[in-house]
Amino acid sequence: MADVTRKIGLSLGADICWPIAYTEIMRKLDLAIPHEGDTVRFDVERLSIEPFDLEDHVPHDVVIDRLTHWFNPRREWIKKAILLDDVYVFNNPWSVQSMEKLTSYCAMIRLGLPIPKTWLIPPKEYENWEPDLHRTLEQYARYFDLASIGEKVGYPHFMKPYDGGGWRAVSKVDDEEQLKEAYEESGTAVMHLQEAVLPFDRFVRCIGLGPQTRTVLYDIEAPLHDRYTLARGFATEEEEALIRDQTLLINAFFAWDFNSCELIHRDGTWYPIDFANPCPDSQVTSLHYHFPWLILANIRWSVYAATMKRQQKPMGWQRYFGAVEEGMTLRERLDALMPIVHERFETERFEEFCSTNLGHLEEVACTWFATDAARDAIRQKVVALFPENEVDAFTDLFADRIRQWIETEGSGA
Question: What is the rounded distance in angstroms from the CA atom of residue 284 to the CA atom of residue 398?
Fold first, then answer.
């Protein structure tokens, strides 16, 4: 039996607190997992940004990436690492680069999810009036009646970028006058008009990491640090299953290991409204009480993927499309699709792996989250975001919420 080391790389941007928590808990776990006659150990390192030779091999088995969606040099390095060395990365960089909101809506419409009525409209302006663009628009662009489209979508609705994220450039439109005003201000952005699911009684975010999910009641009116609420019991078991399965379906379909889905409930239906978020918020200043769950889920999935030498798989969309039929209810569609989803995520094998090899993870994590080192990690993130006179108060707030998690859900429960 040989000792082998799996290398896990952290591809980071402005991240502060979660890499500290992840690395420190992994160090304290000191894993030695028996696998196929070997003992597998783990080494975690932060990846640097520098020029690279396309022919250079990389030593990593798994990369947890936080940069692909906006930093091109890292995205291209990751593509090379996958193609040259079979590195497993979450998330799939080609999918992150190409699957914007419009693609995700269209795919889920075909699979029968209740996506609100959505139109795409051309940009109001163009940055460069090059000869080819001018000729193209002159020959093929058609005048359109914006007010008529607004009526077809219905009021109120939201105007938002077809590829947007983080509530960027989102406008609530209540009537034709506001629609015209919002369009005039939209500049060069390609926009969606999407039916508003209003009034609603519940708004949730479901975070998916591999086959693991966590559903949180989300308060869009609250300050950023309070939007992920501490509420419990806000969904029935049947509703929780519906939310979970829609999230896992979306993530498996687009090859996103880590993604969050927003769903709104009205009149007995859960509407997915925003679910192309393959780099979800991972900071303690947003997640607070839910932060430990994210760290543990990240450790489980990355350790499993590294141990098993998991590789990127083709997306295989036709399997999903072929599994559903006209006339099926949403629940029937999900029941037909979930075997494909669980096969992709190797759910049963993953759960057995965690039970066998990571049974002590929660205890180790809870012990670390109660240390001064954990509090310092929280404080570092707070210092980066809050005014100096609020640092102590918010550090106390987030530390207290993590203590609540230890007492209610962790090993202290």
Answer: 7
Rounded CA-CA distance 44/18 in Å is: 13
Task: Name the helix (H) or strand (E) containing 268.
Answer: none
SS3 258: strand
Picking from 339, 286, 343, the residue whose alpha carbon sits closest to that of residue 313 is 343
* Beta carbons of 297 and 214 less than 8 angstroms apart: yes
Mean pLDDT by 10 residues, the chain (413 residues): 94 96 98 96 97 96 94 96 96 90 94 96 89 90 95 96 78 96 94 96 98 97 96 97 97 96 96 91 96 98 98 93 97 98 98 97 97 98 97 98 95 62
What are the backbone angles phi and psi of residue 197, rounded to the nearest 5°? Answer: -90, 85
Q: What is the CA radius of gyration of the chain?
A: 23
Torsion sign, CA atoms 212, 217, 221, 223: negative
The alpha carbon of 20 is separated from its chain's Cα centroid by a whole number of angstroms, namely 20
Secondary structure in 3-state letters for 24-73: HHHHHHCCCEEECCEEEEEEEEECCCCCCCCCCCCCCCEEEECCCCCCHH
Residue 155, H or E segment: none
In the chain, the amino acid numbered 290 is H
CA distances from residue 29 to 11, 23, 41, 108, 247 in whole angstroms, order as listed:
21, 10, 10, 40, 30
154/179 Cα distance (integer angstroms): 11
